[in-house]
Design the sequence.
């Protein structure tokens, strides 16, 4: 990284060094050539925090502002640079621009953050010498400076006949937010949105200055029913944030009003109200609230985290409104403790998908040892539907100590319970459990459960980086197991992979037992993931006498070739050549020709040409030639066209022999393009 | 009034002084209360690339009704209106070039703001002051002070804020952050954030803006500068007057994730240094190449550069690391990829759909997954990085008070000014 920093610094540092007098150059700035600006910026960078060097830059920029031949763009740019380097000296030159309609904005930009008192004085003075939009801009700058010395002048503008000016003054006084500014705002008769917002802003300023009591007083003014709803809502939020002694009473009062914007806001404040009497005072109001507010209140109580609110949440679990039910479930999960487990599990076991998902989420995130214990107990001793839900939920929770429970449940007489336990074992079992899981699988009599168990062991094994080690218990058992169990074990080997698994599967493809042999071929053809299985699959595709197994092996071979995108195209063409030679049916040939289109090399075209005259797949071969000869885009990847004399010849053959006129036309076009 | 006449008149109004105030459009300030069974009424402001995408996402939600669209480019505006009308099978979607017409309707619950960076703070703050919830595009702000102003408005008015930093609601980002939060790779000593590069442009030709573009409104509170095609729409981001360079474009994504993992998304760095490679010609002035280092109080260093591998990578103890990007998730050791977090461990906010999360929070009033404070802290990394790059020196920062220590010039660069009559 240091090297990169230095490299950039070198490039950046060169920019300014080549302009001898950037200030003279800047005078002719035309919004385009930034060389002079960059040079001055470099001077500012070089100056660092050294005041004398920054003053030199400031002096240069003042010369740009005062020069008769400086363009407007130059003066604007100079003001922008004074943002970084301006002090007291530049104020007179900048202040002269405040009344210029075109340059007032850049001038304000330079003065707004200039810490010199003269900058504030210049802006205040400009209130008297400007009008319209220009004066509004000056007022805005004074507000953004939070300039206390401007209060008196701004207060006079509150009665300005120009509405925009008066309104800007209200906003600015709110931002300044000193007691004097508040006094001025109190004199505004209108209890409208702008005035109310200014009061809220002023209260914020007072609070930031450590005057919480004064801020609370201002906010209590703004809670007045005469102000618009959003102002009242902001005021009650402010009172809560200030921990004002009247905050809870104000929230309770607003909750007692008719369903309104303010009521929702008040309900939300329950999450953060500091008063310990909050839950006791707001829960009795719940029944009278509108459903929308009830949902907000439950969410706030959840975040508040006091168990005292749990009965309210539990009582709302069967509420008629879905949003209230959802809020109640989440609240009960977080603060309800052990008593909430069974009701939530019962909802999770019901068919309503929306409620089920929320109940599961609530249980999955419910904290505490008592909750964990209650879920585990119910998962073992509850009714079957609840057990099924909770066994998977324990895995969702990644709940420690669940594995013995899963192992017991996996042997349960109820197949749904056993299957769910196996699924959770698949998600949570550790390498140490592998041997026991295999033993359990081999003891399983229910076919459906055995299939789930097989999938679970595959999932557990695939989480172990050393696949051969993961499969050691399976490999140890496979030879001695009865055929029916060998089928299950071979399925695991195929699903997990690894060198030893491949050896065992290869051996099993020659087994005398038909089911074992079929399981091995199916496993390699349908589940095996990498190219290591290709030789054995090809051998089966070429030499297997059982026609079904032969086709299965060839399809598996093509599946892996298609997926093995990392292989070189030459290698893939070679594999497809072998597959096409082994294929006896049109479907597999068509499949091979489709995969061939991903190999953008001449040998691929040459291979396709060999099948142009094939009665069954000639059309597919022609389409493959045309595809390879033109650029393509698949899965957002651009594929280059294959070029060369062999391709030209192939296209000519397509034109001569293809039956599809559309393909012929495409081939002609490609030939014409050369 | 037919639509074409309406567009003309609203454009003319926007150009004048008389309508800049909040009144009368926000005059009621009544705030809407949303019944549980009611659709959430939404207005969309800014219909460019992100705006169109956001519009599609909101139109795809069954409990949303988009009532109004807004853009200063009338072609984009017409296209957006057509999209909405086609979706609902009517012609009732309002279309305007003035965002105040949207905010002031009085029948909306929320607005989606997908404007250029210099037009983020004002419509956002004004919307929240009018009682609306906001889905705002990233970066949240054009300067650090604007970001803080948005946070304050969100807190003062109790509005739901969701930032378009949608990575929190998708893929493996949350999983990666939970691994970091729960100490799976130990103490974090270094974070690397890889972002795309910036862009330079050659000389441009100034001229009149195209008739469909209300250029004065496009500039809005930003610095006045003559029109050229290279300035507007997607290109705003390469100019400091309207954007913050590629670092600001992307740090709200990967920087946000980095802070989330570190549990620093309500805080920030204590020192920032950086260098940038700035264009010397043309109108773009933000860094093309950049390397920023943010130092945190706990000793961790965050490196942000366009020269690092894309995404976010946390380095822990004993050579362990976790890397995450869109579609990519890796770790050393690999077993970390299969870790799961239990209910009594640190569980981060769960959301699988960013827009859905925002809508759910509008009803429940729960804080959204990417609230204003969080978005502000992510954007602050870029703002501070830009200042350090432009000044060419390390700056010290107090993340609690949000002030630069011992460097008045850098402190002044935390804030920006608005062209009259616009103001925060």
Sequence:
């Amino acid at each position: 990284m240091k090297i990169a920093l230095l490299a950039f610094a070198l490039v950046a540092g060169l920019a300014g060094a080549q302009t001898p007098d950037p200030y003279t150059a800047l005078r002719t700035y035309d919004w385009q050539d930034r060389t002079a600006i960059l040079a001055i910026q470099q001077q500012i960078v070089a100056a660092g925090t050294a005041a004398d060097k920054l003053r030199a830059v400031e002096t240069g920029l003042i010369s740009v502002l005062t020069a008769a031949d400086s363009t407007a763009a130059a003066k604007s740019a100079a003001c922008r640079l004074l943002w970084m380097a301006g002090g007291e000296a530049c104020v007179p030159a900048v202040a002269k621009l405040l009344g210029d309609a075109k340059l007032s904005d850049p001038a304000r930009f330079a003065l707004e953050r200039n810490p010199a008192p003269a900058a504030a004085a210049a802006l205040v003075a400009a209130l008297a010498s400007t009008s319209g939009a220009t004066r509004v801009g000056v007022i805005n700058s004074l507000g953004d400076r939070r300039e206390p010395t401007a209060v008196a002048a701004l207060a006079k503008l509150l009665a300005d006949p120009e509405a925009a000016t008066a309104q800007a003054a209200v906003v600015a006084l709110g931002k300044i937010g000193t007691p004097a500014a508040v006094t001025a705002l109190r004199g505004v008769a209108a209890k409208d949105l702008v005035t109310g917002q200014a009061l809220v802003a002023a209260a914020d300023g007072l609070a930031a200055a450590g005057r919480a009591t004064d801020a609370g007083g201002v906010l209590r003014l703004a809670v007045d029913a005469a102000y618009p709803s959003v102002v009242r809502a902001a005021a009650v939020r402010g009172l809560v944030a200030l921990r004002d002694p009247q905050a809870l009473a104000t929230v309770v009062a607003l909750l007692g009003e008719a369903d309104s914007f303010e009521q929702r806001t008040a309900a939300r404040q329950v999450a953060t109200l500091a008063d310990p009497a909050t839950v006791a005072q707001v829960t009795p109001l719940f029944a009278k609230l509108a459903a929308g507010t009830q949902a907000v209140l439950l969410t706030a109580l959840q975040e508040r985290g006091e168990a005292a609110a749990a009965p309210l949440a539990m009582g709302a679990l069967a509420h008629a409104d879905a949003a209230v039910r959802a809020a109640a479930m989440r609240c009960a999960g977080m603060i309800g403790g052990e008593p909430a487990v069974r009701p939530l599990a019962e909802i999770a076991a019901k068919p309503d998908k929306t409620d089920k998902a929320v109940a599961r989420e609530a249980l999955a995130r419910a904290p505490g040892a008592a909750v964990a214990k209650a879920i585990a107990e119910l998962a073992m001793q509850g009714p079957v539907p609840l057990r099924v839900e909770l066994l998977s939920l324990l895995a969702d929770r990644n709940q420690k100590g669940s594995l013995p429970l899963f192992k017991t449940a996996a042997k349960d007489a109820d197949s749904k319970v056993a299957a769910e336990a196996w699924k959770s074992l698949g998600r949570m079992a550790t390498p140490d459990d592998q041997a026991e899981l295999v033993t359990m699988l081999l003891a399983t009599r229910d076919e459906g459960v055995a299939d789930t168990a097989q999938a679970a062991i595959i999932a557990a094994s695939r989480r172990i980086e050393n696949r051969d080690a993961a499969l050691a218990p399976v490999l140890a058992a496979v030879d001695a197991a009865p055929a029916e169990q060998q089928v299950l074990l071979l399925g695991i080997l195929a699903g997990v992979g690894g060198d030893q698994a491949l050896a065992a599967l290869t051996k099993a493809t020659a087994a005398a037992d038909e089911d074992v042999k079929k399981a091995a071929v199916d496993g390699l053809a349908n589940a095996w993931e990498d190219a290591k299985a290709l030789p054995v699959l090809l051998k089966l595709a070429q030499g297997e006498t059982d026609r079904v197994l032969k086709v299965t092996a060839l399809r598996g071979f093509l599946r892996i070739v298609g997926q093995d995108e990392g292989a070189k195209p030459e290698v893939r063409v070679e594999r497809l050549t072998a597959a096409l030679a082994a294929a006896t049916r049109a479907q597999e040939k068509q499949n091979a020709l489709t995969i061939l289109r991903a190999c953008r090399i001449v040998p691929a075209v040459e291979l396709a040409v060999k099948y142009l005259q094939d009665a069954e797949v000639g059309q597919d071969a022609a389409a493959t030639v045309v595809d390879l000869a033109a650029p393509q885009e698949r899965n957002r990847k651009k594929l280059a066209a294959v070029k060369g004399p062999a391709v030209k010849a192939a296209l000519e053959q397509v034109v001569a022999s293809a039956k599809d006129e559309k393909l012929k036309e495409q081939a002609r076009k490609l030939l014409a393009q050369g | 009034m037919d639509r074409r006449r309406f567009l003309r008149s609203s454009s003319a109004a926007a150009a004048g002084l008389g309508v800049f105030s909040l009144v009368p459009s926000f005059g009621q300030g009544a705030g809407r209360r949303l019944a549980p069974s009611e659709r959430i009424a939404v207005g969309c402001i800014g219909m460019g690339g992100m705006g169109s995408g956001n519009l599609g996402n909101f139109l795809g939600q069954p409990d949303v009704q988009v009532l109004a669209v807004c853009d200063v480019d009338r072609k984009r505006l017409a296209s957006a209106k057509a999209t909405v009308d086609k979706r609902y099978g009517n012609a009732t979607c309002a279309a305007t070039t003035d965002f105040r017409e949207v905010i002031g309707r009085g029948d909306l619950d929320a607005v989606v703001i997908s404007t250029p960076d210099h037009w983020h703070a004002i419509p956002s703050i004004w919307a929240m002051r009018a009682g609306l919830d906001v889905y705002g595009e990233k970066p949240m702000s054009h300067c650090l002070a604007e970001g803080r102003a948005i946070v304050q408005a969100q807190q003062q008015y109790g509005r739901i804020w969701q930032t378009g930093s949608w990575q929190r609601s998708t893929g493996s980002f949350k999983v990666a952050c939970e691994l970091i939060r729960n100490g799976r790779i130990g103490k974090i000593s270094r974070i690397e954030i890889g972002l795309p590069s910036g862009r330079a442009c050659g000389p441009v030709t100034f001229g009149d803006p195209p008739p469909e573009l209300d250029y004065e409104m496009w500039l809005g509170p930003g610095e006045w500068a003559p029109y050229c095609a290279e300035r507007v729409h997607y290109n705003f981001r390469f100019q400091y007057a309207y954007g913050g360079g590629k670092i600001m474009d992307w740090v709200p994504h990967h920087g946000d994730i980095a802070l989330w993992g570190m549990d620093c998304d309500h805080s920030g760095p204590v020192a920032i240094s950086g260098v940038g490679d700035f264009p010397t010609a043309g109108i773009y002035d933000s860094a093309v190449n950049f390397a920023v280092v943010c130092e945190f109080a706990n000793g961790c260093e965050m490196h942000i550069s366009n020269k690092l591998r894309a995404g976010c990578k946390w380095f822990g103890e004993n050579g362990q690391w976790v890397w995450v990007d869109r579609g990519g998730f890796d770790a050393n050791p690999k077993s970390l990829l299969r870790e799961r977090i239990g209910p009594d461990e640190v569980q981060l906010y769960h959301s699988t759909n960013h827009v859905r999360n925002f809508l759910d929070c509008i009803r429940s009033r729960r804080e959204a997954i990417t609230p204003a404070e969080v978005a502000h802290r992510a954007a602050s990394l870029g703002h501070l990085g830009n200042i350090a790059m432009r000044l060419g020196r390390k700056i010290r920062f107090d993340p609690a008070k949000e002030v630069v220590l011992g460097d008045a010039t850098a402190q002044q660069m935390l804030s920006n000014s608005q062209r009259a009559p616009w103001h925060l």
Chain B touches chain A through 84 residues (CB under 8 Å).
